[in-house]
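From the shared-data thread, chain only:
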Amino acid sequence: MVERDREMEGGVFAALQSAADGLSIAATWAAAACLAALLLIVLGEVLLGVLSRLSPAFPSSIGFAWEYSSYLMGAAFMLGAGLALRAGMHVRVELLIAMRGHRYARFFETLSAALGLAFTAVLAGSLVRFTYQAYSFNQLSPESFTPLWIPQSVLALGATILAIQMFVRLVACLLGKPLEDKTLGVATLPE
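Structure, as tokens:
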């Protein structure tokens, strides 16, 4: 009976982890698309800068470049955060664990996951409310007249996915499961 409960517990956790990983992977692809769009804006700015020096017929810059660059950078950061956590790519302070050896490692991991979940849940909730307010009041950017709820919703989505990964990490800590999947990373920490 106990073994069957453990199998069921492992199956539910595996499904939860798989769903969180799937969301994080999809969000990371969106983050990569944001970085590609950011690159195109920067290249466009450079090209217009050069062309405007050659001929006054060309504008010297793209009017919305700074605004959209900040939207895209924030989106890339937030959308990639969940997978970075899962892959173990976040920078962490391991001084306490190193001082005490691995004896208290799981305790500190659980504590940090609980604190991380509390922080990211508040962040995600705040960003969702912020986005809803921008949508409700039809707030527009003064530069490009972009509805502000659009870039804000991307930040809220990224924060929500990070909070989900924090929740799954906390559950993994409590169940004694592995916390990270190094195969999801694209580089090693020293790189």
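The two ends are 47 Å apart (CA to CA).
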